[in-house]
Amino acid sequence: MFEGKDELTVIQEDIKRALKKPDTKWAMLIDLRRCTNCKSCTAGCVSENKSPPGIIYRPVYEEETGTFPNVKRRFIPRPCMQCDNPPCVEACPNKGKATWKSTKGASAGIVMINYEQCIGCGRCVIACPYKARNLDAGAIYTEGTPRIEAYELSPSWEYNRKWPREKNHIPIGTARKCHFCLHRLKNGMLPMCVSTCICRANFFGDPEDKESLIYKMIKENKIKVLTGVKGNGEVKLKHTDLKGMSPVDIAKKVGYPGSAPVFADTSKTKPRVYYILP
């Protein structure tokens, strides 16, 4: 609760106020002191964005420190960092068309992907230090069962567009990642991960708005950012290594979606996702 109100109610008001301003730049703050690893954010994100196998926008990492019996655990949700200096954008060969950092309108602050312009080369996947991107291999959860369930073929509405789940139809074959639920934001709604968090661990809005809850939380707490995420069995790839590699193979090589986050006070990528550590 914040001043007698549910945090979600306050954040909702912050979003609606921010949408009235030109070029509000969105950001997220995650309070790890509150996260209990329930993975409601992960499940909500998969449901909202119809994420197929091999695509996970919001994993939650688990860390254990100390020696028994003095052991501590913490849980770290990881959306796309929406970096202000995004290496994925720099790596893209289709400059300014397939992926870019938005600075205007309702999407300001978000790193965008245009599925119609993405060539599926995978360069952005290996460039992202946070393991936040992967190529959609076209997989379906119920493939190989007596029937493919209708909910898997229902369209998603990412980037405020209707995307059917059909063979050889984009976004199959393209890079995919978290986009702060832009289609919801444009309608004054919270990102799904914020809505579904039972612990109220997520804060969202314009961090430059002094009336906003995210601004107040950042001012009152010591903030950290991620400098990267390590993956199990991770192999460093060059873009020349990607030729002929399948999306599944690329994901395995880079260790997507990661397992071990690395925190610091600052990062050269200038992420717009901030953390309060326990």
Q: Would you give an account of this structure?
A:
It contains 9 helices and 11 strands. It is of the alpha+beta class and 278 residues long. The chain has a single domain (7-276), classed as Alpha-Beta Plaits (2-Layer Sandwich). Strand 2 and strand 3 (70-77) form a beta hairpin. The longest helix has 13 residues, at 7-19. The radius of gyration is 18 Å and the shape is globular. The mean pLDDT is 96.
Keywords:
278 residues, alpha+beta, Alpha-Beta Plaits, three-stranded mixed beta sheet, two-stranded antiparallel ribbon, 9 helices, 11 strands, globular
Which regions are unreliable across 5 or more consecutive residues at pLDDT < 50? none
Largest sheet entry = 3 strands, mixed
Question: What radius of gyration results from the CA coordinates?
Answer: 18 Å
Q: N-to-C terminal Cα separation, in Å? A: 19 Å
CATH class: Alpha Beta
Count of alpha/pi helices: 9
- Strand arrangement, major sheet: 8-1-11
Helix and strand sequence: HEHEEHEEHEHEHHEHEHEE
CATH architecture field: 2-Layer Sandwich
Overall outline: globular
Report the count of strand segments: 11
- Our count of domains comes out at 1
Q: Could you say what the CATH topology is called?
A: Alpha-Beta Plaits
Structural class: alpha+beta
Roughly what is the average pLDDT, rounded to an integer?
96
Q: What fraction of residues sit in β-strands?
A: 15-25%
Tell me the helix content: 10-25%
